[in-house]
């Protein structure tokens, strides 16, 4: 709770008023007991606590890291995406804050109600298109309706990021994002009422030498069913949850059914690069392994056993002779 700090002159004037009888101590107490009125703007309703906003920020910080890796691989250029801010504002204010012509990805997130909007600044969008089409990743000044080919490319790019959005949101709830529309004019897009509170996650985005913003607009109606899960208490309870014996048994059963590669090495050799370049058909490489020496058996690249070669049912086989102790204690 904020308190007003008085200056020394104000303190002196207050003491003087009390001593001269102009103001009584009872009047001061009465003023303190009166209920103070706090101004509330119904057009800018704050429906989320700072704690809940921080939880959404953490989720989208993870999403930003995953998108950075994805777009770096897809565009094959320098990409950096990070969360710049997270605010709750009226939907009308968000629409006024973005360019008149921009790239708007609208998608549903079942089983949650409502739709989420991902606004991509045209500088970023055209830089991505230029890079995908074989360019240097330079942006263009034109802001116009996308052609059918450009629309298809943009849809494919951002639809493939939905699996990373799903992974980032998995700490809160399971969602299945589905792209429903791609618009360029925000005036034609009316997802919720103008005064509806939305959370806007702004992402600083750099593609090569081009920089801009990606804004994710999440209406209150989408987050309403999962608001309790956005609290710190829920995150702490989730992190400290003990695994049930039934879950441990199922996990152990699945691990036992997992396949691991096993390799029996007949031997190895070292040669110079010059000899390697001159190797031809019919040449023989001498292995640094005696013919009667046991073979090293690796499980997932980790030495685990010593064995001798042989045959079983007309197939090559090895018979385990020794279990390597260092292999058992290896944590990899």
TrEMBL record:
Keyword annotations of the record: Bacterial flagellum, Cell membrane, Cell projection, Chemotaxis, Cilium, Flagellar rotation, Flagellum, Membrane
The protein, known as: Flagellar motor switch protein FliM
Membrane-spanning residues: none
Lipid bilayer topology: Peripheral membrane protein
Main location: membrane
Cited function: One of the proteins that forms a switch complex that is proposed to be located at the base of the basal body. This complex interacts with chemotaxis proteins (such as CheY) in addition to contacting components of the motor that determine the direction of flagellar rotation.
Compartments where located: Cell membrane; Bacterial flagellum basal body
Naturally occurring in which organism (per UniProt): Bacillus chungangensis
Similarity annotation: Belongs to the FliM family.
Domain Flagellar motor switch protein FliN-like C-terminal: 254-324
Pfam assignment, any one: FliMN_C
């Amino acid at each position: 709770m904020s308190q007003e700090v008085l200056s020394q002159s104000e303190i002196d004037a207050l003491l003087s008023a009390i001593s001269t009888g102009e103001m009584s101590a009872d009047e001061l107490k009465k003023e303190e007991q009166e209920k103070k009125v706090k101004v509330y703007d119904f057009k800018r309703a704050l429906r989320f606590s700072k704690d809940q906003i921080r939880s959404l920020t953490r989720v989208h910080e993870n999403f930003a890291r995953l998108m950075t890796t994805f777009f770096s691989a897809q565009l094959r250029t320098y990409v950096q995406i990070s969360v710049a801010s997270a605010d709750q504002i009226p939907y009308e204010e968000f629409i006024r804050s973005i360019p008149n012509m921009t790239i708007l990805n609208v998608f549903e997130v079942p089983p949650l109600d409502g739709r989420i909007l991902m606004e991509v600044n045209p500088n970023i969008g055209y830089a991505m298109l230029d890079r995908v089409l074989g360019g240097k990743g330079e942006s263009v000044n034109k802001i116009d309706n996308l052609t059918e080919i450009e629309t298809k490319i943009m849809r494919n790019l951002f639809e493939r990021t939905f699996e990373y959005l799903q992974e980032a949101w998995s700490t809160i709830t399971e969602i299945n994002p589905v792209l429903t529309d791609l618009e360029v004019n925000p005036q034609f897009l009316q997802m919720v009422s103008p005064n509806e509170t939305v959370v806007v996650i702004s992402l600083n985005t750099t593609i090569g030498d081009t920089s801009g913003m990606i804004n994710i607009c999440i209406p209150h109606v989408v987050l309403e069913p999962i608001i309790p899960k956005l609290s710190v208490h829920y995150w702490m309870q989730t992190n400290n949850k003990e695994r049930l014996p039934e879950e441990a048994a199922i996990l152990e059963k699945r691990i036992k059914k997992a396949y691991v590669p096993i390799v029996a090495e007949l031997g190895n050799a070292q040669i110079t690069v010059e000899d390697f370049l001159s190797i031809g058909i019919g040449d023989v490489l001498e292995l640094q392994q005696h013919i009667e020496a046991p073979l090293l058996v690796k499980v997932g690249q980790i030495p685990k056993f010593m064995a001798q070669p042989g045959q079983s049912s007309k197939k090559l086989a090895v018979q385990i002779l020794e279990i390597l102790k260092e292999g058992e204690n290896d944590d990899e």
